[in-house]
Design goal:
Length: about 400
């Protein structure tokens, strides 16, 4: 019989970990593995808030895929997936077609705007290297524009929609960057406003309330204004309309208020909730023995029946499990259920400041910031070993 074909869609946290494990565990000629990704690099999503604010260079948040995988063992195809056709066991790329025996879907999430008018058209999102380059350049441009039109203080007003993990981490960096930009462009810092608008009754839902309070105080001291419990009703080219119709004029709205799964998955006919497939205990799409779904594309529930939040941490663990189960499937062995092991969460609040929960304890300030650094270095080590830690680690 012919060699089984495994196709992995997306070189994010889930796809990269699946590939790395497969290349280690598969024997010679046991399977044909193809990894497809839009770009020829993997981006370290958990680091994107820094290049977005301009406190780090975008290149430090990406790694060339050829440096991660062994191209003698895995074929890498740089292309964009345009359609998944489970009924034909095929994937349509922008420039070709791939057929598979086993498919792994790890295309990552998309921004969810909850139908807020104008949000998709007028706001920026922190999602990829390209999207953060745009934010970074745009912010600098606003300072330059203000020097020519000094009555336009809306150039210096930055609105961040959403006080989740991504929004808060970005605000921490932006608040650090503002004084630098003011100096560079000779702008009076008191004219700059960073406003966080969040509809929920608290920032960082799911975090310990004492840590949330700490985080908000750190950011307030850096000049951030919080509008918690305030919904954005509309986003326009001139700013946002909040609450009962109040307008906040701003040329820079960054939306971090929601993540959903991927449109391609809905279009493929899988049963989804907000673009995510509710997978079985071995991460397969219901009714498809040969399709595994990972990371932000999947939906899994904890023992209490609540969905796990989409994180890099769970996506990586799923990748490891998926590789194991692919090898087991090929060898006709029994599959291992996925069990999430929560190692904790740390959110950075800019230079030297963070909050976190790990090992059943709360952390804040320098210790938490150090933990964050360790988590980032550990990730670099997992995907690229010591060489990658030395190459990229010094920037973290
Ligand atoms: P992704 O990592 O998003 O990868 C998807 C890949 O698919 C990408 O390489 C993309 O280019 C590719 N792709 C997409 N569409 C196509 C297509 N049509 N064709 C081909 N390729 C395609 N999680 C944590 O655990 N800890 C944190 O500290 C943390 N911080 C975060 C900070 C920020 C600023 C952000 C945005 C997220 C953060 N997260 C964090 C969440 C975490 O990044 C995601 O949950 C994780 O990236 C999901 O991994 P994934 O493998 O599902 O997809």
């Amino acid at each position: 019989s012919s060699i089984p074909k495994i196709v992995i869609l997306g070189a994010g946290y889930g796809g990269v970990l699946t590939s790395l494990r497969l290349q280690k565990e598969l024997n010679y000629n046991e399977a044909d593995v193809t990894l497809v990704n839009k770009h020829d690099y993997h981006y370290i999503t958990t680091h994107l808030h820094m290049p977005a604010a301009g406190t780090d260079h975008p290149d430090n948040a990406r790694v060339s895929i050829s440096k991660l995988i062994d191209e003698f063992k895995i074929d890498f195809v740089k292309s964009t997936v345009v359609q998944i056709r489970p009924q034909d066991r095929k994937v349509i790329l922008e420039d070709g077609t791939l057929s598979y025996d086993y498919l792994v879907i790890g295309l990552g999430g998309e921004s969810e705007t909850f139908g807020i008018p104008g949000m998709a058209e007028n706001a920026f999102t922190i999602r990829s290297i390209n999207s953060v380059r745009l934010i970074r350049e745009h912010i600098e441009y606003q300072f330059a524009r203000f020097k020519r039109e000094p009555h336009r203080t809306d150039y210096l007003t930055f609105v961040i929609g959403g006080a989740g993990f991504t929004g808060i981490e970005f605000i921490g960096e932006l608040a650090d960057r503002i004084p630098e930009l003011c100096k560079q462009f000779d702008v009076d810092q008191s004219l700059v406003k960073v406003i966080n608008v969040e509809a929920a009754p608290t920032a960082l839902p799911g975090f310990d309330p004492e840590l949330v309070e700490y985080a908000m105080n750190v950011l307030r001291k850096k000049g951030v204004t919080f509008r918690i419990g305030t919904a954005i009703k509309e986003c326009t080219p001139d700013g946002v309309i909040v609450g009962e119709g109040e307008e906040i004029k701003s040329q820079t709205v960054i939306w971090s208020g929601g993540v959903r799964g991927n449109r391609l998955i809905e279009e493929a006919g899988f049963e989804t909730m907000r673009g995510r497939v509710k997978v079985d205990e071995v991460l397969r799409a219901p009714g498809h023995e040969n399709i595994f779904v990972l990371g932000d594309n999947s939906l899994m529930f904890n023992p209490e029946g609540r969905p796990y939040p989409p994180t890099a941490q769970i996506a990586m663990q799923q990748g490891v499990n998926c590789a194991h189960n692919l090898v087991a499937s090929i060898r006709n062995q029994s599959l291992k259920p996925f069990v999430f092991s929560n190692k904790g969460t740390v959110a950075s609040l800019g230079k030297g400041e963070a909050i976190g929960m790990a090992f059943g304890k709360k952390y804040k300030g320098r210790v938490a910031a150090w933990l964050k650094k360790m988590i980032d270095l550990r990730y670099l080590f997992i995907i690229g070993g010591i060489p990658l830690v030395l190459r990229k680690g010094k920037f973290l």
